[in-house]
Amino acid sequence: MHTSTERSPGPPRTSSAHRAATVALTALAPASWGTTYAVTTQLLPPGHPLFASLTRALPAGLAALALTRVLPRGDWWWKAAVLGALNIGAFFPLLFLAAERLPGGVAATLGAAQPLLVAAVAVAVLHDRPTLWRLAWGVIGVAGVGLVVLGPGARLDVPGVLAGLGGTATMAVGVVLTKRWGRPAGVGPMALAGWQLTAGGLLLLPVTLTVEGVPRDIDAGAVGGYLWLGGVGGLIAYTLWFHGIGKLPVGASAPLVLLSPLVAAVVGGALGELLSLVQSLGFTLALAALLAAQLTPAPRSARRAPVQPPPAPHPRADDTRAHAPREDAAREETVREGHL
Fold first, then answer.
1. What is the pTM of this model?
2. Are 241 and 23 in contact (CB under 8 A)?
3. Residues 90-118: tens digit of each pLDDT
4. What's the DSSP call for residue 59?
5. CA neighbor of 276 nearest in space, from 140, 151, 141, 108
6. CA-to-CA distance for 201 and 58, rounded, in angstroms?
7. Are 36 and 91 in contact (CB under 8 A)?
8. In angstroms, rounded to a whole number, what is the distance separating the alpha carbons of residues 71 and 93?
9. Sequence-distant (≥ 6) Cβ neighbours of residue 67 within 8 angstroms
C-alpha cells in the first residue's frame, strides 16, 4: 500500500543565494566608483575633467565591442545612444566637475540622493510605487552619508552643487530607462555596457578636443589612474552594474550607490583621514540602509492574519461505494433476525 507523504514544493533554496550573489556582484560597481575621487586627486593631472571622462569611457567601450563583437540592431541604435548620453556622456563630466568644485564629501552626499531620485522617476516611467520601507531607508542612507562626509568646513559652490545634482539626476533616469528597456535577446551585459560607453565616449570626443585638449603632464601614475578608471571603473564595473539592474528590482539596485561614498570614506581613512565617532555612526546608518533596501518586509495584513484550521474532509464518492456492501449486509442480517 502506498502512503502519500510528499509535501508541496516550496520555493527553491537557491533563489535567495542567487539573489545574494547578484547583489554582491552588482555592489562591486559602485564600490569601484568610490575610488574615483582619490584616483583623480592623487594621480590624474588637474583641470581636465572632460579628458578624464573621455579616457574612462571610449577605450573601455571599444574594448567591449571588440570582445563581444555585437552591435545594436533596429531601435537599439537610438536607445543605446540615449543611455550612453545619460549614463556616460553627461554623467561623467558632471561627476568630475562636481568633484573639482566641491569637497569630496559634499559631492558624495549629492550622489547618495540617487535612490530617492530613482524612486521618483520609477513612478513616472515604470509606474512602480516605492514602498514606505525603502523610502524611509533611502532618507536614512542620505543622512548617514552626510554624517560621514560632511564637516563644519564644507563649502557649497552653486555651480558645483548643480553639477552634482545634475549628474545624480541623469544617472537616475539612465537606471530607470535601462530597467524599462532591458536588453535585446542574446545580448549580454558587456555588450550593453560597450554600446553605452562607446556612445558616451563619442559624444565626449569633440567636446574634449575643443575645450581641453590632451594634458601635457601625463606620467606613469596618471596612466595607471586612467587604466584603473577605464578598466575597473568603466568596463568591468558597468558590465556588472547593467547585469544587476536587469536582475534586481530597481528599488533594490539603486541604494547600492551608497557604497560609492562609503568606499571613498574608507579610502580616505587609508590615506590618513580617520573617522570620528559621528562619522562612524553615519557609516553604520548608511550601511544599514543599504542592507535594509534589499529586504522586502511582509505586508502587515499578512502578518496579522489568523491561522485558519484545515477544513474537515468531505466523504468522497468512492468512500460511499466502499461502505455500501457492509451496510447492505447489516440490513439483511436484521431482516433474518426478524423472521426468526
1. 0.72
2. no
3. 988 888 787 777 665 566 666 666 666 67
4. H
5. 151
6. 4
7. no
8. 26
9. 190, 194
